[in-house]
Design a protein that fits this description.
Layout (H helix, E strand, L loop, with lengths): L7 H10 L5 E3 L2 H8 L3 H17 L22 E3 L14 E2 L4 E3 L5 E6 L18 H22 L2
Antiparallel strand pairs: 1-2, 3-4, 4-5
Helix pairs in contact: 2-3
Length: 156
């Protein structure tokens, strides 16, 4: 991200307010050193992105870039913002029973393996129910915990 980015003035104050780390430097080389990545690799990534912007080939990048109005990364200061992916809901994953026990493809219980909420299949089959994760975590997490305690006591 560079200072041309339209959202930079909204993002950075949030990181500052939360005392969350991010990288900032006046050159790509300086940014690479700041965030402890190989200078040549970061420079190559930025050059590749800028070339794709120039040639209208953002969809060919790995991962494809879908910005509506992409801008080249060329104006200091440059920023590196931490990012992590997340899954809101799955429509797959291991099938569980009412005790949160994971079942194999023959619907037989896999002893000692439990799953809850988005790690499990069956809660969201055709659609995602908004804001339902905390309820699912509470219900199936509690069920799984009780079943694990019961299993541990029975194995003594």
């Amino acid at each position: 991200m560079n200072s041309n980015c339209r959202v930079i003035n909204k993002v950075i104050p949030k990181f500052d307010r939360l005392n969350s780390p991010y990288g900032k430097a006046n050159s790509i080389e300086g940014l690479a050193k700041e965030i402890d990545v190989l200078v040549d690799e970061l420079k190559k990534s930025v050059d590749s992105f800028n070339k794709a912007v120039d040639n209208g080939e953002l969809s060919n990048l790995t991962s494809p870039n879908s910005y509506r109005k992409p801008q080249k990364i060329e104006k200091a200061p440059f920023y590196a913002i931490p990012f992590s992916g997340d899954v809101t809901a799955t429509f797959g994953g291991p099938l569980i029973n009412s005790k949160s026990e994971v079942q194999n493809l023959e619907r037989k219980i896999i002893p000692g393996l439990y799953a809850a909420v988005n790690a499990a299949c069956g809660l969201f089959f055709r659609d995602y129910i908004g804001e339902s994760q905390l309820a699912g975590a509470s219900v199936f997490g509690t069920i799984a915990a009780r079943e694990m305690v019961k299993r541990a006591k029975e194995s003594k």
